[in-house]
Every structure is written in C-alpha cells, then in structure tokens.
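Sample pair:
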Amino acid sequence: MSSEVFQEILVSSNYETVFCTEEEKEQYMGLLSSKRVIPRGMSVVLVNRKLAKPHTREEIMNASPDELRQMVK
C-alpha cells in the first residue's frame, strides 16, 4: 500500500463508506448510477471531512466507523 497521507476524506453520514480521493468517489458514484435500485447499505451522500491529523490510506481504510469518527476534526 502507498504511504501517501491524507488530511481529508469523503465519508457517508454513518461512516460506513469512506474514500480518500475524489476519483474513488466518482468511480463509486458511477457504480451506483448503473444500478436500477441502490443496494441496501450503500450511501449516495458523501461529505468531505477534515482529519484531525494526517493518516495513511491503510489507516483510513482499515478503521472502523467509530475510529473514523475519532479521526475527524
């Protein structure tokens, strides 16, 4: 995995869905738009959240929703 660090993430309101880049978000939104019905548990609304301190992609993607809540400002 890359050691690139991020200071902002794109996350759903329940912190179940998280992305590090706008490109990842656009790929996800493209997947959702190809569905006739949005699958249960998949969120359409993603918001930018600043992190309290920089984190690597690995730390962000492996974090639980509760850990993500603690990472944001």
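The radius of gyration is 12 Å.
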